[in-house]
Specification:
Shape: globular
CATH class of the largest domain: Alpha Beta
Radius of gyration: 23 Å
Distance between the termini: 42 Å
Structural class: alpha+beta
Largest sheet: 8 strands, mixed
Order of helices and strands: HHHHHHEHEHEHEEEEHEHHHH
Number of strands: 8
Strand order of the largest sheet: 1-7-6-5-2-3-4-8
CATH topology of the largest domain: Endonuclease, Chain A
CATH superfamily of the largest domain: Endonuclease Chain A
Length: 344
């Protein structure tokens, strides 16, 4: 690559070019590689910060750009990032969206550019709903061992019969089928019948107070999830290859073990009577994954007021974190009713 071509790159493109060079060379310092790409001091600092933030170079062993960096393979960086986010999930539920964004970043150009030859990892952004439907249909015929799905909302009425037909085929072939839904979905009359029918066919169904995104996983080799967790009609991320899918499976397993088997839900406990309608509305919006800024706009209040409302809710529910408040609110039946959706 010529210096002029490298110099024409900007922002993340510079970081990507630098990362590729670091992976293809050994023993060279960060500054030497950056100099070869004709990057100025400010550009070097920015690229260094970006690569460290993504976990693609080891910040602990390479605190200064002038040193020889410890370059991290994309799949290892992804696993480290996922572990870090899992540890934060219970205390910072609101950061699930940010974790997804970072995962998407790693699953995009950095992963495709940096993956080892023969690693058989493919990542694709699919915008055509018909293509997504075909992929799910093909999955019924190709899956061998397991299908794991999580759903933030109800299944469309016209899709229920198709889903049951797929369940029959998969279970008959000995495929493990697990499905996770929000507690709110388990209170919709049509869904109550649908979940009962799925369970009768042999599908393992669980309900959770928190379902971070729609997701379908199969055989630790296939993953389908949205680019925007808050928009079910957004383009989908289609990933193939165990190096990446295992990471999504780890997130799924964490949520699965925190969920309740369908038919064994604990009854709502009394309490929460001290919450005002405004506090209840804020609580339901946050439980739906809506960010503080949108909550403030929906309620017509300031961000400071939203923070105060959430603090009051946590105090009323005797919760140490937003995540704990969401779990307790679900048990108390405070999240019943129509979920809030983000406005566009």
């Amino acid at each position: 690559m010529s210096k002029n071509a490298a110099g024409a790159r900007t922002g993340s493109e510079q970081a990507l070019a630098l990362y590729q060079e670091l992976r293809s060379t050994t023993g060279e310092s960060f500054d030497d590689v950056a100099h070869r790409l004709d990057l100025g001091k400010a550009e070097r600092e920015r690229c260094h910060e970006e690569l460290v933030a993504l976990g693609l170079i080891d910040g602990a062993r390479d605190k200064a750009p002038s040193g020889t960096p410890a370059v991290v393979a994309p799949d290892i960086a992804l696993l480290r990032l996922l572990q870090h986010e899992r540890e934060r999930l219970e205390s910072r539920l609101a950061e699930t969206s940010r974790a997804h964004t970072t995962l998407e970043t790693l699953a995009g150009p950095f992963l495709r550019a940096g993956m080892e030859p023969g690693s058989e990892v493919e990542v694709e952004i699919v915008e055509d709903p018909a293509r997504i439907g075909r992929e799910l249909a093909d999955l019924t015929n190709t899956v061998r061992t397991s299908v794991h799905s999580m759903h933030t909302g109800s299944v469309r009425r016209e899709e229920m019969a198709l889903e049951l037909a797929r369940d029959r085929d998969r279970v008959a072939r000995g495929v493990l089928v697990q499905a996770m839904y929000s507690h709110r979905v388990g209170q919709v009359p049509e869904m109550i019948q649908h979940l009962a029918e799925r369970t009768a066919l042999g599908v393992e169904v669980r309900l959770s107070a928190v379902v971070p995104m729609n997701m379908v996983l199969a055989d630790e080799n296939f993953a389908l999830l949205p680019t925007d967790p808050h928009d079910p009609d957004s383009a989908a991320i289609l990933a193939r290859g165990p190096g990446l899918v295992r990471s999504y499976r780890a997130l799924y397993d964490y949520c699965w073990h925190a969920a309740t088997p369908y038919g064994h839900e604990e009854p709502a406990e009394p309490g929460g009577d001290g919450l005002s309608e405004q506090q209840r509305a804020a609580l339901r919006m946050l439980a739906s994954g809506i960010k503080d800024e949108q909550v403030a706009r929906n309620l017509g209040v300031s961000l400071r007021t939203v923070s105060r409302l959430i603090s009051e809710v946590m105090q009323e529910l005797d919760a140490a974190s937003r995540f704990e408040a969401g779990v307790k609110a679900a048990r108390l039946g405070l999240l019943d009713g129509e979920p809030y959706e983000q406005s566009t």
